[in-house]
């Protein structure tokens, strides 16, 4: 009888742990944030991007958890820096405006264009803005070459900035 009790207690403990980890990863660490707008990197420096109806979430637990959606009717400034290999990261399912698969498909089909919003917003992380042809905008943080190299424990070399921990 005591063996069944121990196994049952372990199963309940495992279930509680699994539910807790799920809740912490999907809900707990995210906060709704209210950015006042976004900028785009250009050859002349950062330029403001007109953004309306901004919805955004962020988490202090990781620099790549930022996601935002917005509407814009502005054209991108001359000299804006395109972002090569933009790969939108998925957002929690409850943040309905950001569909990473749809944004990625729009980028591949040429229905959206990705631009550098801010280089090294955190060490090894860039802020990327994608704007669709119909004026819908999406923002996410993505590891750059320095972040990916450092993440795998390899020496980053002289091309990367000094890490400020």
From TrEMBL:
InterPro entries: DUF6446 (IPR045616)
Superkingdom of origin organism: Bacteria
Keywords: Kinase, Transferase
Gene Ontology MF terms in the entry: kinase activity
Protein name, UniProt field: Histidine kinase
Source organism (scientific name): Palleronia caenipelagi
């Amino acid at each position: 009888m005591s063996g069944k009790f121990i196994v049952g207690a372990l199963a309940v403990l495992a279930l509680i742990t699994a539910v807790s980890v799920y809740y912490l990863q999907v809900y707990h660490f995210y906060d709704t944030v209210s950015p006042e707008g976004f900028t785009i990197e250009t050859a002349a420096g950062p330029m403001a991007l007109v953004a309306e109806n901004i919805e955004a979430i962020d988490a202090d637990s990781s620099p790549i958890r930022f996601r935002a959606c917005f509407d814009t009717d502005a054209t991108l400034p001359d000299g804006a820096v395109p972002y090569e290999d933009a790969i939108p990261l998925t957002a929690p399912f409850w943040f309905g405006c950001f569909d990473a698969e749809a944004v990625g498909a729009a980028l591949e089909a040429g229905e959206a264009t990705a631009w550098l919003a801010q280089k090294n917003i955190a060490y090894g992380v860039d802020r990327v803005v994608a704007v669709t042809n119909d004026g819908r905008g999406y923002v996410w943080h993505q590891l750059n070459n320095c972040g990916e190299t450092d993440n795998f424990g390899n020496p980053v070399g002289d091309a990367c900035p000094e890490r400020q921990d």
